[in-house]
């Protein structure tokens, strides 16, 4: 989370678009920036040896484990892609086209004129119309933050999912494991997916992909954010 926010901080004022991919050392529950800590069953997390982190972005909880996570920092596009929903749909469209080239077909959730009647603390339970489905189940969970004309969006693309754990990790939840995605068959095609996703995103925002490392400034900023924000109870267990 600290690296994602640092990537946003150091994109501001530049024309650089950064695309990062990562995975998780151990199962970790990430909760949204404004999500109530009372949603989470902390004792169950401890018993199951699942870490907890609060994202800088909004949205609901995601259990990260066997997955590919992406993160993008970029200038907010002008015109038809400038809104949050429009930008999210553009990024998910690039993901969808990359998956389609790998013979994995997805579809966008149907537009709806009304918000879901049931609030659920689990991100994958209730898809919005900007999100991707396979056989009616959400397969990419994303969230976005904006700062000074730039955005950072990150998201989870599960290869498999421990759906049976989720109802136990929350207090007073309506979450049901059978309503959640079981993951996506992408594990043996990760490198091809990364390349195709980066190329398609670059075409959409007119940016040629280049490969590089974090700058020293980004790494120093991330270390500071980890120490002073993301690794503190004042941030993770607030609200």
Polypeptide structure, described:
With 239 residues, the chain is an alpha+beta fold. It is 28% helix and 20% strand. It is built from 6 helices and 10 strands. It has helices at residues 2-9, 42-47, 84-101, 190-205, 216-230, 233-236, and strands at 18-22, 28-31, 51-54, 62-64, 67-75, 107-108, 132-134, 137-138, 141-147, 150-158. A 4-stranded antiparallel beta sheet has the order 1-5-10-9, sandwiched between helices. The longest helix is centred in the middle third of the chain and has 18 residues, at 84-101. It starts with a helix and ends with a helix.
Short description:
This protein has 239 residues and is of the alpha+beta class. 28% of the residues lie in helices and 20% in strands.
What order do the helices and strands come in, and which of them pair?
Layout: H1 2-9, E1 18-22, E2 28-31, H2 42-47, E3 51-54, E4 62-64, E5 67-75, H3 84-101, E6 107-108, E7 132-134, E8 137-138, E9 141-147, E10 150-158, H4 190-205, H5 216-230, H6 233-236
Parallel strand pairs: 2-3
Antiparallel strand pairs: 1-5, 2-4, 5-10, 6-7, 7-8, 9-10
Which key terms come to mind for this protein?
single chain; 239 residues; alpha+beta; four-stranded antiparallel beta sheet; globular
């Amino acid at each position: 989370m600290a690296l994602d926010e640092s990537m946003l901080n150091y994109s501001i004022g530049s024309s650089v678009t950064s695309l990062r991919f990562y995975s998780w050392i151990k199962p970790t529950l990430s909760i949204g920036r404004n999500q109530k800590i009372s949603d989470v069953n902390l004792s169950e997390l401890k018993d199951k040896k699942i870490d907890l982190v609060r994202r800088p972005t909004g949205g609901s909880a995601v259990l990260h484990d066997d997955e590919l996570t992406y993160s993008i920092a970029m200038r907010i596009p002008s015109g038809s892609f400038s809104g949050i929903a429009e930008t999210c749909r553009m990024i998910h469209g690039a993901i969808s086209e990359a998956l389609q080239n790998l013979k994995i077909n997805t579809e966008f959730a149907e537009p709806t004129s009304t918000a879901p009647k049931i609030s659920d603390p689990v991100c994958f339970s209730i898809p919005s119309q900007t999100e991707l489905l396979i056989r009616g189940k959400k397969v990419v969970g994303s969230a976005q933050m904006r700062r000074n004309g730039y955005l950072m969006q990150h998201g989870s693309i599960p290869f498999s999912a421990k759906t049976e754990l989720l109802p136990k990790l929350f207090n007073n939840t309506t979450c049901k494991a059978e309503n959640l995605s079981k993951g996506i068959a992408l594990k043996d095609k990760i490198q091809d997916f990364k390349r195709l996703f980066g190329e398609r995103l670059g075409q959409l925002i007119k940016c040629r992909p280049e490969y590089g490392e974090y700058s020293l400034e980004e790494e120093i900023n991330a270390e500071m954010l980890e120490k002073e924000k993301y690794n503190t109870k004042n941030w993770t267990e607030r609200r």
